[in-house]
Design goal:
Number of domains of chain A: 1
CATH superfamily of the largest domain in chain B: Type I PLP-dependent aspartate aminotransferase-like (Major domain)
Radius of gyration of chain B: 23 Å
CATH class of chain A: Alpha Beta
Helix content of chain A: 25-40%
CATH topology of the largest domain in chain B: Aspartate Aminotransferase, domain 2
Largest sheet of chain B: 7 strands, mixed
Oligomer: heterodimer
CATH class of the largest domain in chain B: Alpha Beta
Number of strands of chain B: 14
CATH architecture of the largest domain in chain B: 3-Layer(aba) Sandwich
Structural class of chain A: alpha/beta
Number of helices of chain A: 5
Structural class of chain B: alpha/beta
Distance between the termini of chain A: 38 Å
Largest sheet of chain A: 5 strands, parallel
Shape of chain B: globular
Number of domains of chain B: 2
Order of helices and strands of chain A: HEHEEEEHEHEH
Number of strands of chain A: 7
CATH superfamily of chain A: NAD(P)-binding Rossmann-like Domain
Radius of gyration of chain A: 16 Å
């Protein structure tokens, strides 16, 4: 299973030892707002294999009320939804483009998002600060190096059912 | 859903606020403000697809209370939050929690470096599991970090110590020992029962796993047995030394826990495999009491530590007392470590040696009125035990000394009563201890060292 793209795996450190400032792309308030407002999520690199992290995430999002649009040029249909070969080929408006691809693929995906998506969400380990800057210039919000499933479960779902730390402190009835 | 929480996600709430609120949001269906006791074995699935998703670990859903329960989860999240961990898994007892951590991290043939000053029940457990599970343990004097380094072997897979030892009051140099462990590619596990996250948070000093006997200060009222494992989420379990966590699991169709769940990998394994298979789960009712106890942890620990220091200071001035082993006293050999790791106090469990040996100890105990003579610590009520006449009665004086105990050693767990009343009680005991020629300890049942 070494080929599994980690759903919740922290990123490897860059080879030069420096650490990019990812905090600006991980703001809990922004994450919560995006998750609450979004309806349609395109999952780029969604695998049809059930044990892959991308499938875990796509399946979870679908189960939790999001319309999932698979993007995978090698497949016709995943999770019961029509597959598109690229973000540019998608025929409907998309709120969030969720990326399970190698970092090198991110700049191209960002350009395709222009005018089509409100936000781009890069999974754990999909780190590309320059592409993130470009996305912001295009008016696209960016989340980087975070798992959409975990963050949904943290803010709106059931992460706490497994005794994990959500950091949610509230006396309001949810 | 309403989104009035916006703005709260990024606030750094204080320890006392988190002790009251973490893990326990109002119950959404009824609005119940106190955490409900979900006294149920199992949970109805929404539909067959949901059931499959839960059992495949694709979605977070309740299946069976042996591995998850909402009341237990509220307690787990509260402790994980206070320790600064990524999550926690509760167990039926502190020893079950430790056994769960060993079972998850270790394989037959592995080696553990452990403090020889660990709680007696832990030493017994390790020696027993060594024989039963096929790993080996080297016990070291924990006070010198080099001792840990010297005990490392190629097959070493875990370091294990205590924030505050018992009965010697040893304080572990967590940062130094964690650094040695990490250079070997192995995690440091710390039993932080005597410190609680109010006094020390070992994960902030580099430890990777924290275990607690919740029975003690977390519950705080001596009414329930329980334990909990907290993990940092930072240890690289996929570094090649821990195939039991990193390799595909035959129990889940080849799911690789570390690769799939990343920072949650160890805890998912601990819950979905170890707790499932060992079965030593915490009961929902106990979790309710532990969660309730945790709400007042900061208040109680401040009082416990202040009372304990006052009493330790009182004892040092008494002619009936030989020595007092409280790490917070001026001149303690652990003073520098206390200043670094325990600035709020060195806890409330400590021992002192009476002049006059076993007989004096028995006379002291018999005279006490407020201190409860029993085998536990960490209760709101003050507790006392004289090991030589109870838990260690089967040992002769020489064997006692080998266990770090003198014939006249008394262990106190100072509660939250008025300190002047506790001092009144102890004074009567000390005066009785000094009266020589009184009856010897009456013969009694020996105990199998429960504590």
């Amino acid at each position: 299973m070494s080929s599994v793209i980690a759903c919740e795996l922290p990123p490897p450190l860059p080879a030069d030892g420096s650490e990019p400032d990812l905090g600006q792309y991980q703001d809990a308030g922004t994450i919560r707002r995006l998750l609450t407002a979004a309806r349609t999520v395109a999952v780029v690199g969604l695998s049809p294999k059930e044990l892959r992290a991308s499938y875990f995430v796509g399946f979870y999002l679908q189960r939790n009320g999001y319309r999932v649009v698979p993007v995978n040029p090698r497949e016709q249909e995943i999770l019961g939804e029509k597959c598109y070969p690229s973000v540019a080929a998608i025929e409907e408006p998309v709120d969030i483009v969720n990326v399970f691809r190698a970092p090198a693929a991110v700049p191209g995906i960002v350009e395709e998002c222009a005018g089509r998506a409100k936000a781009i969400w890069l999974q754990y380990g999909v780190i590309h600060p320059e592409a993130a800057e470009r996305a912001r210039e295009l008016g696209i919000e960016v989340v980087m190096d975070r798992c959409m499933k975990v963050e949904h479960a943290r803010h709106l779902g059931r992460l706490h059912w497994l005794g994990f730390t959500t950091r949610r402190i509230t006396a309001r009835r949810g | 859903m309403s989104d009035k929480e916006v703005g709260a996600e990024t606030r750094e709430f204080g320890f006392a606020t988190r002790a009251v609120h973490a893990g326990a949001r109002p119950e959404p269906h009824s609005g119940a403000r106190a955490t409900p006791i979900f006294q149920t074995t199992s949970y109805v699935f929404e539909d067959p697809e949901a059931a499959a998703a839960y059992f495949n670990l694709q979605e977070y859903g309740n299946t069976y209370s042996r591995i998850m329960n909402p009341t237990v989860a509220a307690f787990e999240e509260r402790i994980a939050n206070l320790e600064g961990g990524v999550g926690a898994v509760a167990f039926a007892s502190g020893l079950a929690a430790q056994a769960g951590a060993f079972f998850t991290a270790l394989q037959p043939g592995d080696h553990v470096v452990a403090s020889r000053a660990l709680y007696g029940g832990t030493l017994t457990q390790l020696k027993h599991l060594e024989r039963k599970l096929g790993f080996e343990v080297t016990f070291v004097d924990p006070d010198e970090p080099d001792n840990w380094k010297g005990a490392v072997r190629p097959e070493t897979r875990l370091f294990f110590g205590e924030t505050i030892g018992n009965p010697g009051g040893n304080v572990l140099d967590i940062e130094a020992v964690a650094a040695i462990a990490h250079r070997q590619g192995v995690p440091l596990m710390v039993d932080s029962t005597f410190a609680t996250p109010y006094l020390c948070r070992p994960l902030e000093w580099g430890a990777d796993i924290v275990v607690h006997s919740a029975t003690k200060f977390i519950g705080g009222h001596g009414n329930s047995i329980g334990g909990v494992v907290v993990e940092s989420g930072r240890f690289p379990w996929d570094n090649g030394k821990f195939p039991g966590i990193a390799d595909p699991s035959p129990a889940y169709h080849g799911l690789a826990f570390q690769a799939t769940f990343g920072e949650y990998g160890f805890l998912m394994k601990l819950r979905a495999e170890t707790l499932r298979d060992l079965g030593a789960c915490m009961s929902p009712f106990n979790a309710f009491l532990f969660g309730l106890g945790t709400e007042t942890l900061p208040l109680r620990m401040a009082r416990h530590t202040a009372n304990a220091l006052e009493i330790a200071t009182f004892l040092t001035g008494r002619p009936e007392v030989e020595t007092v082993a409280h790490a917070g006293l001026p001149g303690s050999r652990y003073a520098a470590l206390v200043a670094k790791y325990l600035p709020r106090g060195a806890g409330s469990v400590f021992s002192f040696d009476l002049k006059g040996g076993r007989a004096a100890g028995a006379r002291f105990i018999r005279e006490l009125n407020l201190f409860s003579h029993l085998a536990n610590v960490g209760d709101a009520k003050s507790l006392v035990i004289h090991p030589a006449s109870t838990t260690h009665r089967q040992l002769d004086d020489e064997e006692l000394r080998g266990a770090g105990i003198s014939p006249g050693t008394i262990r106190l767990s100072v509660g939250i009563e008025d300190p002047r009343d506790l001092i009144w009680d102890l004074t009567r005991g000390l005066e009785a201890a000094a009266v020589t020629g009184a009856d010897e300890t009456p013969a009694g049942e020996t105990m199998a060292c429960p504590l």
